[in-house]
Amino acid sequence: MDNKSQGSGGIRGGFGNIFGGGAPEYSKSELASVPLTGASSLSPYLNVDPRYLVQDTDEFILPTGASKTRGRFELAFFTIGGSCMTGATLGALNGLRMGLKETRDLAWSKPRNVQIINMVTRQGASWANSLGSVALLYSVFGVAIEKARGAEDDINTVAAGTLTGMLFKSGSGLKGAARGGLVGLALSGAYALYNNWDHITGSSTSSRLY
Q1: What is the pLDDT of residue 106?
Q2: What backbone phi and psi angles, to 5 degrees, belong to 67?
Q3: Is 0.85 surpassed by the pTM of this model?
């Protein structure tokens, strides 16, 4: 019996050494030190705690002294470009409407198509120029007021909107400048109210509860 067991053990050991399939043997102390699956969050393969690999928030590398939110100067490019594109789109639609209305008595022909296309391009360029100028003035006033006050809040938004309306309509005299200032004040005030609506409603609700 001993010879058979030794022989079979020798054969298994020989094949295990040749093919690398020999099962390793552990002592009781080594088995006790092996962590069970799910007992620890530390991965035995990476030797790194997986909790440090999961990030709930986005992390960015920012320069020294830089803020996590974009300032008015960075948003100025998006504001001006978006206003120009919006003005061009609205102007083109308005030009198409006007072109179809003015040439409704004409049959579909090349001269009518040319008139419609001219009206579309003319109105698109005019609207893009107007809205782009307004966005440029608003951005310049906003950045200047922010630098002068050293703070960024809704006061800058309302002041920039009011000054933009006054300067944009300054060519129409004092009354035109006053109307433009009122329009700018109304639009910028509505925008500031929209941005702080959640805060206002939350504060009013909490005040009612107490």
Answers
A1: 84
A2: -95, 160
A3: no
